[in-house]
Amino acid sequence: MSRIQMKKNTAAAYAFAVALLMYGGVIAVLLFSGRASHFVEARFLPLVAVSAVFLLLAAGLQVRALLRGNAFSPRAGLPVLVLPLLFSLVAAEYRSPLSAARFGTPLDPIAFAISPEAETSSALPVTARSSNEAGEPGNVTRIDDVVEGEGSLADYLTAELYAQSELPAAGRIEFDDMSYYSYYNEIYDGMQSMVGREIRVTGFVHREEHLSGDQFIVARMMLWCCTSDAMMLGFHGTYDRGRIPSENTWVEVTGTLDVATYHNPHTREDYPIPSIRISSIAPADEPEFEYVFPF
Length: 295
Known about the structure:
9 helices, 2 domains, 35% helix, single chain, alpha/beta, CATH 2.40.50.140
C-alpha cells in the first residue's frame, strides 16, 4: 500500500471517529436539553438515548483502534455520514409552530381538515369517522387505507384512540393535550349538535389572509412521528370585543360553538365548519411541549 493511500485511509478513519462522536454528541445534547422531544415522540426517547450510547461507544472504540494503528477506514463517501449533521442546525426553526408548518405541512389548518383531499391523503394517517344525516358522530370507519382488515392494527389503534378521551355529553368542553385530537374530531363530525355549547381551548393565534379582521384561528401543532410530518389543527374563531392578539401568540379562548361557512381559497368551495364565537381571550403560557398527538 502506498504512503498516499495510507494517509487517505488514516484521514478517513479519523473522520469516521469524529462523525460518530458528533452524532452521539448531538443526540446527547438534544436529550439533556429536552429539545429531543421536539423531533421524536416522547415514548421513543429511550431508544434515542440507546442510540446515542452506541454511537459514543463506537466513537470510543474507533479512537482506541486509531491509537493502536488498526482503525476501521470506511470506503463509502464520508459526506453520507457528515452531511446529515448539518440538519441539526435547523433545530431552532422548529421552536415556532408555524415554522414547523412550513416544513411540508399545509398552512391552512381549516382547509386541510375539511377538504376532500385530506380524507384520502397518505401524507398522514388521518382518522375518519362516519356521520349520520343529522351530523351526529357515527362509528369509526377507517384510519388509513395502508392498514386494512378485521382485527387489524387499524382496529386496535382506532379503539385505543377514542377510548382515551370521550367528549362529555354536556357542560363546557375543556381541551387538554391528551384529549385535543379526539375532541377535535368529534366536534368536526358532530358540529350541528355542538352549536351553543361552551368551549375553552388553548393554542397559538394564526391569521389567514382570506379571513376578515375579526376572525382568526386558534391552533395547535399535531405530531404524528416527528416535526417533519407535523400538521396544524385549528378552530376558526370570531372575536368582536377588542383587539386580536398578534400572530403566534399563545392564548386561552372561551366562547360558544357555532357553525360557519368557510370558503376554501384553494378549491374555491364552501364548507360548513365549527366556529367559536369568542367571548374572552386571555394570555396563555406556551406549553413546555407545544405539540399534541393523535393517540
